[in-house]
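In the design runs reported in the main text, the only information available to the sequence generator was the tokenized backbone. The following block is the verbatim input for one such run; it is reproduced so that readers can re-run the procedure and compare outputs position by position.
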């Protein structure tokens, strides 16, 4: 089995399936400045040098810090680079994550992202839902669709949503991606991953390596030892083979770790290895 390195979701939206999640470039708790600003800039520049064309970010990372780092490191942006951002939350002074889903909040968030990234139009904006999967997203997604019609956004996506919420969003405007929590040991979204593949929607796995609680499995470690790569690389390779429309946005603040993650895009797991890994969450 082979995996393609890129995915095309629209005429002007082709990205590398192995992307980069910029969240970890902020300080502890995704709040405040990075521990090492020079290393953070180096990570972003190295990602582009390695051919990554999909960078995931948000103005509420920091807040503002990460988008300002991206602009410092990469502007003027390479022609093929696609920056995907999220709206729908604000950070409190204590670092808390607070819903910000009113049309006024979302309009301000879009303009703030434009300003901090230094662009006229945002490639993709994901509506991040911090509430449970039963809440209606009609009002906030309609507000983003209007900003899209105004030319401020090229494409829309949704994040942390249920199957029903995806259906509701698609009744309002086209959805190019779903960004949810999914990895080798966290598979509550199995059905949604398959639905996205059927409908040609990118499924963007955030926390592909477990996020703040790293993926742990003795089976994974055993497979990695036999294949001769790291457990993290196996976990990423499994995700790329899980579905043809899966995109990954592993984050790191280390250039060495970034190189390891990107190299996982070239790792092809044999069918018997995939079956062994599939059974972890069985």
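Verbatim output:
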């Amino acid at each position: 089995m082979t995996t393609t390195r890129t995915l095309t979701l629209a005429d002007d939206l082709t990205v590398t399936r192995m992307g980069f999640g910029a969240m970890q470039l902020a300080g502890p708790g995704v709040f405040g400045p990075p521990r090492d600003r020079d290393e953070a800039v180096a990570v972003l520049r190295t990602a582009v040098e390695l051919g990554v064309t999909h960078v995931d970010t948000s103005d509420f990372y920091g807040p503002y810090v990460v988008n300002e780092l991206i602009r410092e490191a990469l502007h003027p942006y390479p022609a093929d680079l696609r920056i995907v951002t999220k709206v729908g939350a604000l950070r409190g002074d204590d670092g808390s994550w607070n819903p910000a889903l009113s049309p006024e909040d979302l309009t301000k968030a879009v303009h703030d992202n434009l300003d901090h990234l230094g662009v006229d139009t945002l490639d993709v904006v994901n509506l991040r839902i911090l509430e449970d999967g039963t809440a209606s997203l009609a009002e906030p997604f309609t507000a983003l669709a209007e900003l899209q019609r105004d030319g401020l956004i090229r494409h829309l996506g949704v994040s942390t949503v249920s199957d029903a919420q995806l259906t509701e969003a698609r009744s309002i405007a086209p959805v190019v991606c779903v960004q949810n929590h999914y990895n080798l040991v966290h598979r509550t979204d199995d059905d949604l991953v398959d639905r996205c593949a059927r409908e040609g929607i990118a499924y963007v796995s955030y926390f592909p390596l477990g996020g703040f609680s790293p993926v742990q499995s003795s089976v994974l470690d055993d497979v990695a030892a036999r294949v001769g790569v790291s457990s993290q690389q196996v976990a990423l390779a499994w995700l790329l083979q899980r579905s043809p429309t899966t995109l990954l946005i592993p984050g790191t603040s280390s250039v060495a770790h970034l190189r390891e993650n990107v190299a996982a895009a070239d790792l092809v797991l044999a069918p018997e290895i995939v079956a062994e890994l599939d059974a972890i969450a069985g």
